[in-house]
Amino acid sequence: MPDAVLEVQSLRKDYISRERTVTAVDGIDFAIAPGQTVALLGGNGAGKTTTLSMLLGLLIPTSGSIRILGEDMVRHRYRALPRMNFSSPYVELPHRLTVAENLGIYARLYGVRDRKARIAAIAADMDIEALLERPAGKLSAGQKTRVTLAKALLNRPEVLLLDEPTASLDPDTADWVRQYLRRYQQDSGATILLASHNMQEVERLCDAVLMMRGGRIVDRGAPSELIARYGRQNLEEVFLDIARRPDTAPEAVSA
Ligand SMILES: Nc1ncnc2c1ncn2[C@@H]1O[C@H](COP(=O)(O)OP(=O)(O)OP(=O)(O)O)[C@@H](O)[C@H]1O
Prior knowledge:
Blueprint: E1 6-16, E2 21-32, E3 37-41, H1 48-56, E4 63-68, E5 71-72, H2 77-80, E6 84-87, H3 99-109, H4 115-125, H5 141-153, E7 159-163, H6 171-188, E8 191-195, H7 199-205, E9 208-213, E10 216-221, H8 223-229, H9 235-244, E11 253-254
Parallel strand pairs: 3-8, 3-9, 6-7, 7-8
Antiparallel strand pairs: 1-2, 1-4, 2-11, 4-5, 9-10
The structure holds adenosine-5'-triphosphate.
């Protein structure tokens, strides 16, 4: 795809320890066009978080290439990172700092110019104004998710990577966050890649889906295309078909 914002080729990650090697991501290829919202779907251990971590430069790929916003992410990720952001329930904010202090530090790190105004605006958007003076370590799981999303939007990212963006949110708040993300995407033209276990969320938000299993992409397409191809009613049924079909792939774990 010539004008892809995000392009991954033959990407692989082996976790190597003395006891064994786990191939978490086993040679995947995909490209995302500007302004698309794409979901990485797959069961527990399929390789979604490992993939997102490599895209962010938190993990070094065993092999393969990643280009984001035209930059080679293995060699020049610092050129692209200021134009990106991410949220993940697995990344902790410094516990003793307040929410406001955390957002202030991240705003500085990302070089946000209108820091105070931006933090105030995003705090209002994410309905976390009442939490600003609380230590980040003392928030409920759902409150933490909203603060992490606020952090992810601080620098108005052109590329947004989201690991389970509505994890721990009650249905009302989750619905509201989805609407917010959709609006953000439409207003900013951002490109979004998200990992989720929530199929309704993916059907509502995403233009395309990458189905992962055992570290590979085993199917892909628009949610409606996949639903039609599998002759199903919804994406959840497609997911179950893929997750439960016999595995023909070679064993991903070797001694
Ligand atoms: N640090 C690690 N060391 C060794 N193996 C790991 C490590 N992190 C992940 N794995 C293994 O890599 C595989 C992929 O894990 P990953 O966390 O990417 O999956 P996931 O699709 O995000 O799963 P989930 O839906 O449960 O979050 C799994 O088999 C997991 O056990």
